[in-house]
Design a protein that fits this description.
It is a single chain. With 143 residues, the protein is mainly α. The chain has one domain. The chain contains 7 helices and 2 strands. Strands 1-2 form a two-stranded antiparallel sheet. Helix 1 packs antiparallel against helix 2 and helix 2 runs antiparallel to helix 3. It is globular and about 50 Å long. The N terminus is likely disordered.
């Protein structure tokens, strides 16, 4: 159910996109870490922040169609860049990368006056992101 609080996370949905990537690395050899691919990383970050907002704020939910479309966009982008399925899986499963994303997400929330346990602060940020149609807001809707 799209509105369910038990639905998979936005970040997990976008990260799972890359699991379908099965093309070999490009002819140029070594690729930079996925963390350095701004287009991909910024969208994963937006999904991570959006996921925290939607879990905490009962009046905000994900726009699942946009999340799924973003998933395929990231899959195609990773393929175009030459990343293999194994490279993407290693990135996704990396505890260090997961910890890094959580730290960045939490710092963003804090900078925007979100207080853990304060539902209204999450909802305020969610509404602001939706209103400005930011990358985060693009993935969310208020009902």
């Amino acid at each position: 159910m799209p509105g369910s609080r038990h639905h998979p996370s936005l970040a997990a949905g976008l990260l799972a996109a890359a699991l379908a990537v099965a093309t070999p690395a490009g002819a140029n050899g070594e690729l930079p870490p996925l963390r350095e691919q701004d287009y991909i990383y910024n969208r994963l970050f937006a999904a991570a922040v959006g996921d925290e907002i939607r879990k905490a704020c009962p009046t905000i939910s994900p726009r699942w169609f946009r999340v799924l479309r973003g998933r395929y966009d990231l899959e195609n982008r990773a393929r175009d860049l030459g990343y293999t399925r194994e490279q993407v899986e290693a990135f996704i499963e990396s505890e260090a990368e997961q910890d890094r994303m959580r730290r960045l997400r939490d710092a963003y929330l804090e900078r925007h006056d979100v207080v853990k346990g304060d539902i209204d602060s999450y909802c305020r940020l969610g509404r602001a992101e939706i209103e400005r149609n930011s990358l985060i807001g693009y993935l969310l809707r208020e009902h």
